[in-house]
Amino acid sequence: MAQDSIEIVTAARKGDRRALARLISIVEEHRPAASAVLAELFPSTGKANVVGLTGAPGSGKSTLSDVIISRMRSRGDHVAVIAVDPSSPFTGGAILGDRIRMQDHITDPGVYIRSMGSRGHLGGMSAAAPKVVTVLDGIGFPQILIETVGVGQAEVEVVGEADTTVVVVNPGWGDAVQANKAGLLEIADVFVVNKADRPGVRETVRDLNQMLDLGSAREWRPPIIETVATKAEGSGDLMSALDNHRAHLVDDGHLETKRSQRLEATLKSALALAAVERMANAQESDGYQQTLSKVTERRLDPWSAAQSLVEGLNG
Ligand SMILES: Nc1nc2c(ncn2[C@@H]2O[C@H](COP(=O)(O)OP(=O)(O)O)[C@@H](O)[C@H]2O)c(=O)[nH]1
Ligand SMILES: [Mg+2]
Questions:
Q1: Predicted pLDDT of residue 100
Q2: Is-contact 68 50, C-beta < 8 A?
Q3: Using one digit for the tens of pLDDT, what is the confidence trace for 251-301?
Q4: Residue extent(s) of CATH 3.40.50.300 domains in the chain
Q5: How far is the CA of 228 from the centre of ligand 2 (A)?
Q6: 61-74 vs 99-107: helix axis angle to the nearest 10?
């Protein structure tokens, strides 16, 4: 088993995309081979630049991802994309105007796109995301993009895996306010006002600036970039903003701190999950039925019963 999974890792490192897809499924679905895969890959992680994009459905995240992919590819970098957005064209659901360009990327061996369902993972998507990032980083992708809808807490947490978080809003009354309410203001490293070909750009930029002024002082003030993703307008500014944020993180040692904190958070949630799994095993132990009978017969209280079952596991 372990040997098999190491062979899959080796194949994936050589560029075998089917092997990579298998690795991701293994860790996502928490299959028995997951431990060996993660143990093998983890030591080579910490090299990728991870960029998260979040914002309301339809704000243009996928179109922007497409633009960013093109820019990164023209620099020669390989790019992996994790699309958590259920409305994403990457999922093959919606067929959008940018389909043709997207197909270019799909056939580009330097781009790997993987969609992640928001259900069906043990511990939820936020537990699966760090593992998927570990696989992509460990395989050697220098650039990882995570696209997610900025609505639910879980989705926002997934973006927490990113070194740089881009929050996408659109021009129009109240969009910036909505983003603020969804908790996106605090997590933004870069704001993008996409669809800048539409009216209301100035107002939206002003709203964002006002909200940033009202917030607590930060070492990094998120720049506000205007883009028309469908025409790749503003893509140069966006790439500069991403580079500047990256440089800020690296220069002042923030990247190390951020990553250490993220690893601690991952350890804590992995620990909680491991505990839950272990406790679930307790329900299958020999003593469980006996203990349950004692509880239903009111000979033993449920709290002491739980305690003794947990103690029974140690050994
Ligand atoms: N007018 C205009 N439309 C855009 C722009 N960017 C994206 N769109 C369109 O907005 C729609 C949603 O874009 P998509 O990237 O799928 O949004 P997502 O749901 O956030 O990923 C698509 O029809 C895009 O073609 C833009 O800058 N201007
Ligand atoms: Mg999308």
A1: 42
A2: no
A3: 888 999 999 999 999 999 889 888 888 888 777 777 889 999 999 999 999
A4: 45-252
A5: 15
A6: 40
Using a 6 Å cutoff on CB, does residue 61 contact ligand 1?
yes
45-252 is classed in which CATH architecture?
Answer: 3-Layer(aba) Sandwich (3.40)
Confidence of residue 216 (pLDDT cuts 50, 70, 90): confident
Residue at token pair 């990256």? 246
Q: What is the structure's pLDDT at 286?
A: 77
Any atom of ligand 1 within 6 Å of the Cβ of 60: yes
Which residue's alpha carbon is at the smallest distance from atom 26 of ligand 1?
A: 195
Nearest Cα residue to atom 9 of ligand 1: 60
For residue 160, how far is its CA from the centre of ligand 2 (angstroms)? 18
Say if pTM beats, i.e. exceeds, 0.70: yes
Q: What is the DSSP letter of 151?
A: S
Q: How far apart are CA 200 and CA 177, in angstroms?
A: 14
Residue with the two structure tokens 């992680």: 45
